[in-house]
Amino acid sequence: MMSRKLPHGACLAALLLAGGSFVAQAETLRAPLKELISVQMDVQSLLPKIRSAVVAIRTHDGTASGVIINAEGLILTAAHVAEKPGREMLVVLDDGKKVKATTLGLDKTTDAALMQLHDTDIIWPHVKLNRNVLSATPGTWCFALGHPGGFDQERGVVLRVGKVIRQTANALQTDCVLMGGDSGGPLFNLNGEVIGIHSQIWEERDHNMHVSMAPFLRSWDEMKSSLVIRVWDTGSGGYLGAAVNLNAAGKIEVLEVLKGSPAQQAGLLAGDIVEALETLTLNSAPQFSNAVRARAAGDEVMLQIRRGENAKEMRIKLGTRPKEDEG
Amino acid sequence: MRVCFTFLLLLASLSHADTRPQLTNDERTNGKQILADVEPTLPAARASVAQIESPRGKPVATAVWVGVEGYFLTKASEVPELEKHRIRWEKDKTAAIREIRRLSSHDLVLAQAVHVQARTPVQFEATTPETAYGQWLAAPVKGGREIRIGVISAQTRRIQGFGAAMGIRMDDQPSKIPGVRISGMADESPAALAGLRKGDVLTALDGKAATSMKDVSALIQSFQPGDFIEVKYTRDGKTSSTRVRLASRTKIMMNWDGEDFANGGISLRTDNFAQVIQHDLPLSPSDMGSPLFDLNGHALGINIARVDRVTTFALPSSVFWKEIEPLIEADRHPPKALKPGDQVKDSSRTRQGLVKDSSRTRQGVVKGSR
Hints:
The complex is a heterodimer.
Chain A: E1 3-5, E2 16-17, H1 34-50, E3 54-58, E4 63-68, E5 74-78, H2 79-82, E6 88-92, E7 98-107, E8 112-117, E9 141-146, E10 158-167, E11 171-174, E12 186-188, E13 194-202, E14 208-212, H3 213-218, H4 220-224, E15 228-229, H5 232-235, E16 242-246, E17 252-257, H6 262-266, E18 273-277, E19 280-281, H7 285-293, E20 300-307, E21 310-317
Parallel strand pairs in A: 7-15
Antiparallel strand pairs in A: 1-13, 3-4, 3-6, 4-5, 5-8, 6-7, 7-8, 9-10, 9-12, 10-11, 11-14, 12-13, 13-14, 16-17, 17-18, 18-19, 18-20, 20-21
Chain B: E1 6-8, H1 32-38, E2 49-53, E3 59-67, E4 71-75, E5 86-90, E6 93-103, E7 108-113, E8 136-141, E9 146-151, E10 157-159, E11 164-165, E12 168-170, E13 180-185, H2 190-193, E14 201-205, E15 208-209, H3 213-221, E16 228-235, E17 238-245, E18 247-248, H4 249-254, E19 273-279, E20 291-294, E21 299-308, E22 311-316, H5 317-332, H6 348-369
Antiparallel strand pairs in B: 2-3, 2-5, 3-4, 4-7, 5-6, 6-7, 8-9, 8-20, 10-19, 11-18, 12-13, 13-14, 14-15, 14-16, 16-17, 19-22, 20-21, 21-22
């Protein structure tokens, strides 16, 4: 199947502006629509606060998007937009003002990248990123902002509202439809926190992929110091070294613990039931796997274990995945 | 038997991606669950439309009923020869079409389904109800079989026109044969769809000799997207002719290498509108002409152009309703609706009207683009 990265080669023509205002749906609506209306109210109250943090980025051969996440002007974008560290690019702000930024590090395995705006003396408009990566579960309402087709002052930043369809260790799939030029733009939850960065589309309308916050949080220091992550063992997250399955009772049961793995060193045994990871109650094997891989190697996690009649807490320091297991 | 779903954490790779929990189609934004909630608030929405079918039975556009005696509006550029089409509002209910008036400036055409009575028209207002960025909207799709929702996704604004195009690059060098050589072609361009190829030499357009690139460009610019243009050309010394269906220049330039995952394609005319509401409803080009509603059931306007994967434009009712309402009244008094047994008039007359109309619009476009 074909997939396509999103920078866009062409710019839309400039058009004439007619302003819009924010109004809520005033009339009474049927009860089942309450969910939609509550989503709309959240999105509409967040938009004026967060849109100034969303930027367009001019790369050497196209246009893309990004989002400012601190007052000093640090930008999250996609690795296929940044391409390599130390590259100077033009950034177009929400009001059309053009400023300069330089790419920092990037994680090519997951398509995550950082950029720094040059002027660090002013206080940049910015948004928060969501540190509870696993909260973006399938069904969560979310919205995408970006500059599809390039920056267009009269059109403004383009909004799409939808739901998370799938969550993987490093990515989210949503039905917020994306296209060329959206790359690097932010996906928000209804608290106005960034939960994803637009990365790729596939042919179908619901095939819109975003980098989750996991690779950013995991490799923050590396990316800030302009390193390029190219291989999975540094980029793929924490490693436990245990095989689990969902047993007949609907519990996560350890099937096998690998020799020399972090799990074995911590004393995990085959037959143990893993009830929770930190505050997350576990009810599926992929959910457990995601929770482990969303954390960085070196992080300590607390597992709540049931062994026979006994409940115990176990602290395990996650390792990196052994190289021979790659692929 | 116990369901054993083994998951090796250390080997968890992309191949496991498909086993992860995933939102079903029914649970998605435009899935059955949400649409079941939306539909009761829009009782008239699905019955307010019908499908315009080509002579071969292919749905090409959507009609919205605007008067009880079968009066309807649809997207003009998708139906240059409207009276050759039929209108279908139920599986086994179709009618012939009488064209009343083309408003090229809005890309709308007013027409009547012949011998059709008692359709429930949409109540458009001369002042469009207030709308806002981020507001939910809904529209009937597939000729009224389903509903889709989405939000206002950008500023309401004017969309400047850049005229029509065939999607060809032409040669500067004078060729041996008098005419203009095609040196390149856009992917799925109007020219390619009409059977033209790279290397063909255009000798005449619309009955006028093609002598220079400048002439050809100017002539094409005098047409509207959606119009047919008669093209004479020579290939390997042999002269032939074909009809090219023109598209918006903007559409062709933005998609020279093919439509970028547009899902079902994009409209022929995507620009030159006095004002548009931009939204993210998942619509197809053949859904254009359908009405756009807010969740209170107010009709806001008409979906007028599928632009790309993320963009649909709708004309707010304030742009067109003041012009349409008197046209329906004038057509009704004295009644011009056909009586049973009358012949639907020949469509060649309509084509002349169309060309005249478009030349008028061209002047507006040229002036506006300077």
